[in-house]
Design goal:
Two copies of one chain form a homodimer. Chain A has 153 residues and is of the alpha+beta class. In chain A, 35% of the residues lie in helices and 31% in strands. A three-stranded antiparallel beta sheet of chain A has the order 1-2-3, with no helix packed on it. A three-stranded mixed beta sheet of chain A has the order 4-5-6, covered by helices on one side. In chain A, β2 and β3 form a beta hairpin. Chain A is globular, with a radius of gyration of 19 Å. At the A-B interface, β1, β2, β3, α2 and β4 of A face β1, β2, β3, α2 and β4 of B.
Chain lengths: 153, 153
């Protein structure tokens, strides 16, 4: 326990700093170390790459889905709401001119919950989008972000 | 060639729309289909996850590095500048309050180029950051983005 406390003390500044290291691997391929995980990125064949990894820009849409998704699972678990078949579509429109950014982003949540808990799912999404999800807050600085929930049975 | 033209015509709208599908896989794990590539995300153990995949927020820093990295490789290739040992560190400071966003982001490029081509690398970075990299442009909407180049030999 003492070691653990010293660890946190020495690293207190780093706890609010995120670092990612990325290496060029030839062609147009890059590999990032994101914590303990390796992410491979590449340009598509139309842009001189080999499509050997994810497109960097589209990766932001995965980031958005993962961020709000983890929030919602965490909140539903705290509310003791049973759920299944949870998926998230993130869809973005690109501007025409360089630099091409996402200016409209839509998030579609699909989930199965007991009928009496639909309002709790709505509350969980609102809490994520308005309060907890940092990625969504960052997206809101450059895009119009909208969302909807499909309840399926 | 005719088939190719028809293909582009039918898909003209989709070319400016990006879509990512993400599924919940239990615990806090989510899996995204980014084009042909699967990205696994998870919360860390301190946040109720199993660290079985990348943290969604940190994934944005990989996206940033990949976007500007691919630009720079493309530009250096067009300029016929030989280079090697190219890597990119992306480091971001988080705000203290929810939603926690990145408010300061630093990009450190490390690269080996012939001494007479250092100015071309600087030009390539400027072109990426000012004109081409959409991810960098999106980051600039919510964060102070700075960069530097380490030329190594």
């Amino acid at each position: 326990m003492r070691d653990r406390m010293i660890f946190f003390k020495n690293n207190s500044k780093n706890m609010s700093t995120h670092k990612v290291e990325t290496q060029f691997k030839g062609g147009m391929q890059f590999r990032s170390a994101v914590g303990n995980h390796r992410i491979i990125m590449d340009a598509g064949t139309a842009d001189g790459g080999n499509d050997s990894g994810a497109s960097p820009k589209r990766l932001m849409l995965a980031s958005l889905a993962g961020c709000t998704g983890i929030d919602i699972v965490s909140i539903l678990n705290k509310m003791k709401v049973a759920f299944s078949d949870f998926s998230i579509k993130t869809e973005a429109e690109l501007t025409d001119e360089h630099p091409k950014i996402y200016d409209k982003v839509k998030i579609v949540y699909s989930i199965k919950v007991p009928a009496e808990n639909k309002d709790k799912m709505e509350k969980a999404v609102n809490l994520s989008m308005d309060k907890y999800c940092g990625v969504s807050a960052m997206f809101s600085a450059f895009a119009e972000v909208s969302w909807e929930i499909n309840f399926h049975s």
